Amino acid sequence: MEKNQEIALTQLRKSVEKLGSSTEGYGNPTLMRFLIARSMDQDKAAKMFVQWQNWRAAIVPNGVISESEIEDELEPRKIYLQGLSKDKYPVMIIKSSKHFPSKDNVQFKKFVVHLLDKTIASSFKGREIGNEKLIGILDLQNIGYKNIDARGLITGFQFLQAYYPERLAKCFILHMPRFFVSVWRMVSRFLEKATLEKIVIVTNEDERQDFIKEVGEEVLPEEYGGRAKLVAIQDVVLAPFEG
């Protein structure tokens, strides 16, 4: 690790203590994500870290969101977890045609936390390092107006930005219909520049081939140009977590 990074991490730990919290139990890779997300500004990173700690304590008091808490969101089987990409990032697929705006906003937020936590956890066996990232694939094929959920999209991306800093490696958006373009423009206003730079809207054959190459045929389902089968996230069994 570079000397300036070591200094920044030391200062971050001190700044967190000044805010009345602690970084005990969190390794450098985890703390570096917050520093990177705040352009290496230790005070801003410390504030973000403490806000994340308070948020986790409130929304995930038991450390995990159980499937019994989010049964309504799991029932449509709209989220798929496909294994690791060529760069060893877990690949999550969202089939938007199976999604409808939630009537229970609290359950939906817990659902977002569950799928992000489980996707990240699928990238390691037993023990988290802290710098794991994920690839998201948002498939808009066959969506209708009833499937449009701008608030849900904004919630998902805002959670990634505020509470999962530097967890998103890339997000691919497939089959975007014309009527969705105005929705995406509105959603984009809520996204940080760093997030927008990680989003690729696949619109032609060259981009599709690049998408297949980056993710990998081994984990991509056949309908996306790969050789795998779709695996619903609730059907994925993870290795025991070692804390």
Automatic annotation (TrEMBL):
> Where is each CRAL-TRIO domain found?
67-232
CDD domains assigned = SEC14
Q: Which Gene3D superfamilies match?
A: CRAL-TRIO lipid binding domain (3.40.525.10)
Which Pfam family, an example, fits this chain?
CRAL_TRIO
* Matches recorded under PROSITE patterns: CRAL_TRIO
Q: From the UniProt annotation, give the residues forming the signal peptide.
A: none
Question: In its UniProt entry, what is this protein called?
Answer: CRAL-TRIO domain-containing protein
Which organism does this record belong to? Lithocarpus litseifolius
